[in-house]
Request: fold
Amino acid sequence: MGILRQVAGLKGAHAKWLQYAGIGAGISLAGGLILDIPLAQIAVTMALTAGLVFSGFAMQSVGRQREKAIRQ
Reply:
């Protein structure tokens, strides 16, 4: 039951995370193009950056939900 409550509490927050993940991927793209890195490596860097940013925000939000549940 606890996991279902956590998922319900995070509803809609993923839209915010995806925007930040896209910004991180865009920064990787710009940096890679400026440094003249091959496109295949830029694509991998963009995917890793987006995944890292998204998972970081997800972990932060789950931790925040747990802290709220513990306090109550």
Observations:
- The mean pLDDT is 80.
- Residues 13-62 form one domain.
- The chain has three helices and no strands.
